[in-house]
Amino acid sequence: SYELTQPLSVSVALGQTARITCGGNNIGSKNVHWYQQRPGQAPVLVIYRDINRPSGIPERFSGSNSGNTATLTINRAQAGDEADYYCQVWDTSAVFGGGTKLTVL
Amino acid sequence: VQLLESGGGLVQRGGSLRLSCAASGFAFSSYAISWVRQASAKGLEWVSVLSDSGAGTKYAESVKGRFTISRDNSKNTVYLQMNSLRAEDTAVYYCAKEPSGSGAYNWFDSWGQGTLVTVSS
Prior knowledge:
The complex is a heterodimer. Chain A is mostly beta strands.
C-alpha cells in the first residue's frame, strides 16, 4: 500500500515561513491535498490538487508537488496557524500522512 | 454545508453500532461521502466512501467485511453500520464530503465535527 511520510513536528518563528513536507514514491504524479486540524476540532481543507486554495483560506498558504516530495508552505506564520497538518492522496484508497505538528514560536 | 454525525457511544467488543451523518446546505444526492476516523492522539485514517448514487463503495482493508456504508438520499443521510467491533476501532468518526459524486481520486472539502466510538474489551 502507498505510504506518505511527514515530519512529526515543525517549528517556525512568528512571522516567518513554515514548510511541511510530505514524502511518497513518485508523489509528483499524484494529486496531493492538505488539511489543518486545530486541537479539538475537525480537519479543514487548506490545499487541494497540489496548489489550489479553497475559498476562505488565506493566500499565505500554498502548495507544491514534484518528484518524491510535496510541500505545504505557510508564509508569515501566525499563532493561529498552530495545528496538526495532514497530507492526503488517493491510491487504491484514500491515504493520509501521519501528520505534522506545527509550533509557532 | 453542514455535516452532523451521531450514533457514537460505548459498545462491547464484538458488538455493533450504526453511525449517521445528516447533511444540509448542499445538493446531497450529487456528492460522495466518506467516513474518516481518528484514534486518540493519532492521525487520520480513511474508512469508507460511498458514491452519490450509492452504487459505488470502497472500504479500508481494516474494516472490510465488518463495516457497511449506505445512504438515504431522501433523508440526506449517510450511515456506517459497524459490526464485530474491535478495540482498535475506538476513534472519533468523521463524515466528510467529497467535491464530486464519483467517490474516488478525491479530497474532502467539508467535514463534520465527529462522533466518538469506544469499544470496550
